[in-house]
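Could someone model zinc ion with this protein?
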Amino acid sequence: MTKVNDIFGSEIEFDCMGCDIADHKLIPPGGYVYEDELINVAADPEIPIVGFMILGIKKHVKSMNYLTRDERIHIMDILNTTIEKMKNANICDEVLLIQEEKSSHFHIWIVPMHEWMNDFNKNVRNLKEIIDYSKRNFDEKTKDDLLNAIELLKEEFKKTSK
Ligand SMILES: [Zn+2]
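Reply:
Sure, complex below.
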């Protein structure tokens, strides 16, 4: 069991964060932005960057190498849709994508690039500093903006399902 503090300062515990989010044992901040039989998209429980989304999958596999071709195509399609919707909701103009196979449960980080990240050259090399900065500077206003961004994305996703 791993224990960490979530972005709101509450302690959360999980065996595998990816499985627990997929199984609704761990509800991500603001709830699920998108969900289907394979994929979920939601805010990261630990990193308080406004609009920062994680694309997770239900299957506990570490690499997309273990997925079927149809699953990979579906993941890419929902990834693309999520990025489009982040832009449509004016959360960001650009994103940074990260997928680390060292994690035991496949997921993709979709990091929106914000103005304040210019100080860090919006560079993947500075991602740790960007994350640390977001944690140090998390306040009530950022919390409101973060939850608001999640609601905007939920609305954006509703538009396509109609
Ligand atoms: Zn898992």
